[in-house]
Specification:
mainly alpha, single chain
């Protein structure tokens, strides 16, 4: 299975585990090389330990990255929904203010209502963008 086909957290767990196995095997090779006075086996053990440490560290980084992406997905999605709803509400309130301003011949209230509608459109659009950004971070979307 390719790295692209696996969830980053799953791949990270596998890499961490493989790295720890390599560390343990390398430690065994190093000790066996020391006991049998075999410098090649000892050196291979040292290399395997280093490779295992590197792979385990990389796996931990993959898991932390996955956790961070999960947090960002949730954060962007929640804030996007909030901004979309607030923007929609401001558009409605702005439309009401605009109409009241027209009916009462109050140009200031009418202008305030129009401005609130524009602000609502901007906030709603921003919310949709946040939601899309959260979706883009989601590998399953």
């Amino acid at each position: 299975m390719n790295y692209e086909e696996k969830d980053l957290g799953t791949q990270g767990k596998e890499d961490t585990l493989k790295g720890k196995v390599d560390q343990a095997l390398g430690k065994g090779q190093e000790k066996a090389g020391q006991r049998t006075n075999n410098p090649d086996l000892e050196a291979r053990g040292d290399v395997n330990q280093t490779r295992g440490t590197t792979q385990a560290t990389y796996g931990n980084a993959e898991q932390q990255t996955n956790h961070s992406l999960d947090h960002q997905r949730a954060h962007l999605g929640a804030h996007g929904t909030e901004h979309t709803l607030k923007g929609g509400l401001n558009k409605i309130v702005g439309k009401i203010e605009e109409k009241i301003g027209e009916l009462t011949d109050n140009p200031n209230l009418e202008a305030k209502g129009k401005a609130k509608q524009v602000g609502g459109t901007v906030e709603s659009t921003f919310g949709h963008a946040e939601q899309k950004a959260g979706d883009r971070l989601d590998p399953h979307a």
